[in-house]
Amino acid sequence: MARVASLEVWVGTRKGAFVFRTKDRRRWDLRGHFFSGEEVNHVAQDPRDPRRLYAAAGTSWFGPHLHASVDGGRTWKLSENGLSVQALPGATLKRIWHVAAGAADDPGVVWAGADPGVLFRSPDHGENWELVAGLSQHPSRSQWSEGAGGMMVHSIQCLGKGRLVVGMSVAGSFRSSDGGRSWEPFNGGVLADFQPVHYPEVGQCVHKLRAHPRRPDTLYQQNHCGVYRGRFTGKKWTDISKGLPSRFGFALAVPAAEPQTLLTIPIVSADRRYVPEGKLRVARSRDGGRSWQLLTKGLPQSNAYALVLREAMTSDDRDPAGVYFGTSTGAVFYTRDAGNSWHVLAEHLPPVYSVSVAVC
Q1: Fewer Cβ close by (within 10 Å): the C or N end of the chain?
Q2: Cα(291)–Cα(136) distance, integer angstroms
């Protein structure tokens, strides 16, 4: 009988990281807490070498740091040689938002996105880093601006064959076909209703961008101004927001096992950052955004004035899909049936910043 791999759900919070482990998605063991007292913005596994993990953490006092583990997260060491923004006059590295292992055909390469709107590349599993000048010093940079959380690269999708897509706030999405040497804006059809020109070449506010794990040409984004579907080779994004209670939101999950499924959590608006009507509902589409269903079973439907942040929702590779998300009020919910019913994984944690899955 084939061995069934265990799953780990890493939860980054305002005061450290916690990891929950399971074999059957019914019984869970808690391990941790790691980086106690630090803000943990992201924990990422390298699927090419599952024992390798990366954690973006830090504090307002001591600044951001990147940690690496080669033993599945039991021990960590700093991994940040070269994480510098000296090439950008007057800039300061404020926060590391996201870490992404490179594609399977790009061994050893790791990417990190940070504020102030910069992307880093490591060729050697994070031992050394270099600023990706083609994006970080893009000719359109003067048109970028800070959002409520700063100006950051927070979504990095490595599609293989030298193709990459990133999402940035407030700049939009950019794509590269040559391994990150050159980049072009990829924002056609995406609304920016807060800008003087509502459909600019750059200046959109991507909140989260993901590629389908098994169909990497298919892209989705939850934007400040709606939910969109695109293709890496396309010229424009398609607005798929119709049917949602709000165009605004941060979180996005794209399960590997379902070809056209995506999930998001609608938020009232930019100035009222909580779920509509105080009802915690997950919106799911199983036809690429052509129609939506609001999922509620197991979720609080009154007085739930929670926010789910951009990195705080993810999915696993199982069938039926597992989806996981954490809230600003310190709760973590999960489903093992693609959202039909939800269960509490944790309560009373510090505010949740990130949720990610590792296979072990």
Answers
A1: N
A2: 37
Residue by residue, pLDDT tens for the chain (360 residues) are: 456 789 999 999 999 999 999 999 999 999 889 999 999 999 999 999 999 999 999 998 999 999 999 999 999 999 999 999 999 999 999 999 999 999 999 999 999 999 999 999 999 999 999 999 999 999 999 999 999 999 999 999 999 999 999 999 999 999 999 999 999 999 999 999 999 999 999 999 999 999 999 999 999 999 999 999 999 999 999 999 999 999 999 999 999 999 999 999 999 999 999 999 999 999 999 999 999 999 999 999 999 999 999 999 999 999 999 999 999 999 999 999 999 999 999 999 999 999 999 999
The greatest distance separating any two alpha carbons of the chain, rounded to the nearest whole angstrom, comes to 61
Closest CA to 217 of 164, 181, 265, 253: 164
Separation of alpha carbons 135 and 123, rounded Å: 17
Q: Are 157 and 165 in contact (CB under 8 A)?
A: yes
Q: Which residues pair with 230 in a beta bridge?
A: 219
Q: Measure the CA–CA gap between 358 and 360, rounded to whole angstroms.
A: 6
The answer to whether 256 and 243 have CB atoms below 8 angstroms apart is no
User: Given strand 226-231, what is the order of strands in its sheet?
Assistant: 206-212, 215-223, 226-231, 238-239
CA-based angle 34:40:44, to the nearest 5? 85
The structure's pTM equals: 0.97
- Tell me phi and psi for residue 141, to 5 degrees: -55, -35
Q: b/e for 255-275, b at 16 or more Cβ within 10 A?
A: bbbbeebbbbbbbbeeeebbb
With H, G, I as helix, E, B as strand and everything else as coil, classify residue 134.
helix
Distance CA 79, CA 123 (A): 13
